């Protein structure tokens, strides 16, 4: 979980020992702090470290100098020595000055990182595609830039060798050199990411132009979105019980009972206090949600924190301007609930769908709900298509819902539910 080099996550053979630090705000519920710290512990576990202690302090607001009070900082430093801790992880993003002051207060060998740095480290570990790796590198460098303090000599290691020309720029401080190099790196990554994103956008536009109904999964990390995609679309997307197991969006084809095809896209999971740098860096991936016709909000029904997780997802959807898209609330992992808990959940959230991606329970109900949503904005038409226009009959079967089909000497008689963008194609043959 080393964060010494922001460009690459690295892990030790033996698990590092971590102390977690959070604030209990006096005007907030105590469960909020407990929930956030518990999630930080899961993030720490995902990153490969072991939590050896948790420290909280009741404050009105973070201490501007060291996030916590100076006395509490001394207490944490003493705990580091007594527990042989390797890293102290703070539950909110530290300002550059707070991080600098905390590093001075802690034992020299102990690293100080914050929630954002931890998440970035996990993202670096799990990014698999070129776009995912570029998005993580962009977020890392954006995070790093304001935290440069003139000690990042490794960033300038490839700057210039000795000899003629080596004195060009002499007089700049190491800090200025480092900042310029990081800005240059950010510009370069953005340029490369734009190229990759344009390719994805071309693929996305092709799907949009095809008029195929687009479904996107959104939900809290570890809600089981990838498992649900695998179950619905018979896919083989990586899924396991870790936070942020998958980062890169994956699109698969889903065939509805009437034979109509729709696309189903799995996207990066959300989380409390999702860093703004990640929202910006993963804009291309999150665009898959913004461009969807329907969003499946997948919720881990077995989690004691499902309500807070739902709020975090709703806030992020609003942040990326996807909150007005039609939505189906999907409670996953119901195999872990008893009948009483299931009934209570169904009564509290009428219209939601209860499923288990693990056992397949409720999947049929979800597919039918998707089919209803796909046909909600369609026009009902009865058309007579001449035999010479077999292409329209094929289009009807691939893109429309065919309610009935018969033949006479003039051609094919179809009763259809037609997407609005295809109405013009069939209007000339309407009965």
Main structural class: alpha/beta
Strand content: 15-25%
Low-confidence stretches: 1-13, 150-171, 237-241
Q: Averaged pLDDT, please?
A: 82
Estimated radius of gyration:
26 Å
Bulk shape: elongated
Number of DSSP strand runs = 13
Fraction of residues in helix: 40-55%
Straight-line N-to-C gap: 67 Å
Number of helices: 14
Taking strands numbered 1, 2, ... along the chain, how are they ordered across the largest sheet? 6-7-5-8-9-10
What string, H for helix and E for strand, traces the elements in order? Answer: EHEHEHEHHHEHEEHHEHEHEHEHEEH
Oligomerization state: single chain
Largest sheet: 6 strands, mixed
Task: Describe the structure concisely.
With 431 residues, this protein is α/β, with parallel strands linked by helices. The protein has helices spanning 30-46, 70-83, 96-105, 115-126, 130-144, 174-210, 225-233, 276-281, 283-290, 306-319, 339-348, 363-375, 390-399, 423-427, and strands at residues 17-25, 50-59, 87-90, 111-114, 214-219, 250-255, 261-266, 294-300, 327-332, 353-354, 379-386, 401-408, 411-418. Helix 1 packs parallel to helix 4 (115-126) and helix 5 (130-144) runs antiparallel to helix 6.
Protein model, in words:
By secondary structure, the chain is an alpha/beta fold. The chain contains 14 helices and 13 strands. It has helices spanning 30-46, 70-83, 96-105, 115-126, 130-144, 174-210, 225-233, 276-281, 283-290, 306-319, 339-348, 363-375, 390-399, 423-427; strands at residues 17-25, 50-59, 87-90, 111-114, 214-219, 250-255, 261-266, 294-300, 327-332, 353-354, 379-386, 401-408, 411-418. The chain has a six-stranded mixed sheet with strand order 6-7-5-8-9-10, with helices on both faces. β9, α11 and β10 form a beta-alpha-beta unit. α1 (30-46) packs parallel to α4 and α5 (130-144) packs antiparallel against α6. It is elongated, with a radius of gyration of 26 Å. The termini are far apart.
């Amino acid at each position: 979980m080393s964060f010494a080099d922001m460009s690459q996550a690295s892990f030790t053979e033996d698990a590092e020992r971590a102390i977690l630090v959070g604030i209990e705000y006096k005007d907030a519920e105590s469960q909020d702090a407990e929930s956030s710290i518990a999630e930080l512990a899961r993030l720490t576990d995902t990153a490969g470290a072991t939590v050896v202690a948790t420290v909280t302090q009741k404050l009105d607001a973070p201490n501007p100098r060291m996030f916590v009070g100076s006395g509490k900082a001394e207490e944490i430093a003493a705990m580091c020595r007594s527990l042989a801790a390797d890293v102290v992880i703070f539950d909110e993003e530290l300002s550059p000055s707070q991080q600098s002051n905390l590093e001075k207060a802690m034992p020299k060998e102990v690293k100080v990182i914050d929630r954002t740095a931890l998440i970035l480290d996990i993202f670096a570990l799990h990014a698999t595609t070129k776009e995912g790796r570029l998005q993580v590198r962009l977020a890392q460098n954006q995070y790093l830039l304001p935290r440069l303090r003139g000690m990042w000599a490794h960033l300038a290691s490839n700057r210039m060798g000795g000899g003629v020309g080596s004195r060009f720029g002499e007089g700049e401080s190491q800090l200025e050199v480092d900042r310029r190099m990081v800005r240059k790196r950010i510009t370069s990554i953005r340029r490369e990411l734009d190229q990759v994103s344009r390719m994805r956008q071309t693929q996305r536009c092709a799907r949009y132009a095809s008029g195929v109904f687009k479904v996107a999964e959104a939900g809290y990390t570890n809600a089981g979105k990838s498992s649900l995609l695998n179950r619905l679309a018979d896919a083989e997307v990586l899924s396991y019980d870790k936070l942020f197991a998958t980062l890169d969006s994956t699109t698969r084809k889903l065939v509805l009972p009437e034979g109509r095809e729709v696309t189903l896209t799995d996207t990066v999971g959300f989380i409390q206090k999702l860093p703004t740098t990640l929202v910006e860096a993963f804009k291309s991936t999150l665009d898959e949600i913004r461009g969807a016709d329907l969003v499946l909000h997948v919720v881990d029904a077995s989690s004691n924190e499902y309500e807070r997780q739902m709020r975090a997802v709703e806030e992020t959807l609003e942040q990326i301007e996807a909150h007005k898209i039609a939505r189906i609330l999907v409670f996953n992992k119901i195999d872990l609930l008893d009948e009483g808990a299931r009934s209570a959940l169904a009564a509290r959230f009428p219209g939601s769908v209860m499923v288990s991606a693990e056992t397949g329970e409720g999947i049929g109900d979800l597919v039918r709900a998707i089919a209803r949503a796909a046909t909600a904005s369609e026009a009902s038409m009865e058309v007579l298509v001449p035999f010479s226009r077999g292409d329209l009959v094929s289009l009807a079967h691939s893109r429309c819902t065919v309610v009935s089909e018969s033949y006479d000497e003039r051609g094919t008689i179809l009763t259809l539910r037609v997407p609005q963008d295809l109405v013009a194609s069939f209007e000339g043959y309407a009965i």
